[in-house]
Structure formats: C-alpha cells, structure tokens
Specification:
Elements lengths: L15 H4 L2 H40 L7 E3 L12 E5 L2 E5 L4 E7 L8 E7 L4 E6 L2 E6 L6 E4 L6 E4 L21
Antiparallel strand pairs: 1-7, 2-3, 3-6, 4-5, 5-8, 6-7, 8-9
Length: about 180
C-alpha cells in the first residue's frame, strides 16, 4: 500500500555511504592523501638538497677582500694587446691575461632560487665587464686575482679569488707546516 504523497511506496532509510562510493571511495581518499604526503616529503628533500648546494656554491664563490680599483670607461688606460673575452650569465668579461672560471651562484647567501653570475680571475690585469647596465673597468693590481659578481645588475669587483686554477696564486698564503 502506498503512503500519501509517494507514488513509489513507503519511505526507507537510505545508506548514503554506499551512494558516495563506500569503502572504495575511502580507500581512494586515503591513497591520494598518502601520495600527497609523499610528494610533499619529496619536495622538502629537494628543497633541502637545493639549499645545501646553494650555500656550498655561495661559500665557494664568494670572496671578501678590498675592492678593485675602478677605471673610468672613458679613461685612456688600455691593455697592451687585445683583451680575452668570455660571455657568461648575460655579461661579457674581458681580461688582459690569465685564467677565468665562472659559475652561477644562488641568491640570498645560497638560500634563494634565483641565480647570478660570478667570475674569478687568477691574474687578469685590466678587466672590463659589459652588462645591460653599462661598461665597467677594473684593475685588481699587478698579478693579483680578482672576483666579479653581478648580483644586482652592476658588477662588484674585489681583489682575491678562491678557485683552484691549477697553480699557486701570488696572494696564496704558504701552507702551514706540520708540528713534527
């Protein structure tokens, strides 16, 4: 017999968990949650590794020292021969002689995700750096090493370098003697 207002018959309680997938739905939600957690753990590990590498690179390429002598671009100081040019990180680095090594260094002391170029020279003589911001000329001193970083658009030059150029640099301190 039908109840009033219902053409289908008496009302029954409906189990809504079965309407929304029941057990298989819960398993899918738990699985997706576990996959999400695993993904977050993986991203955290990647960030930790990136940060460790960034800090190590920053320490390896950052040099503290006195500033190089700045030479006005219009100055008559010139090299006695054509400069050797290397393009790196959107800039051109020209040097009178010697070796150069360059690397991208993470911003923020190695913590950041941005990069900026750093080049180290063993004994460059005259250095010219050309960036979008202009032409910059430096003198580190006769046979002195130099490091140039371009963290904020304009290059900064300091006397000193800490990369291994395969030979001892003039500024290197003698190796400590053993206490034998």
């Amino acid at each position: 017999m039908n109840t009033p207002g219902s053409a289908a018959g008496p009302r029954r309680a409906v189990d809504l968990s079965r309407d929304f997938g029941g057990r298989s739905q819960r398993v899918a939600i738990i699985g997706a949650t576990l996959l999400g957690i695993a993904g977050l753990v993986g991203m955290g590990q990647d960030w930790i590794q990136h940060t460790k590498e960034g800090i190590a690179g920053y320490k390896a390429w950052t040099v503290t020292g006195p500033p190089c002598t700045t030479i006005a671009p219009a100055s008559s100081v010139t090299a006695g021969h054509p400069l050797q040019i290397v393009a790196f990180g959107g800039a051109k680095f020209a040097r009178e002689h010697g070796a150069i090594q360059c690397s991208d260094v993470a911003t923020g002391g190695g913590w950041g995700f941005g990069l900026y170029p750093v080049c180290q020279f063993d004994h460059p003589g005259l250095i010219e750096v050309s960036t979008r911001a202009g032409l910059y000329r430096y003198w580190a001193g006769f046979m002195s090493p130099a490091t140039i970083s371009i963290a904020h658009g304009a290059p900064v030059c300091v006397v000193g370098a800490n990369q291994d150029f395969g030979h001892r640099l003039l500024f290197d301190k003698p190796a400590p003697r053993s206490a034998n």
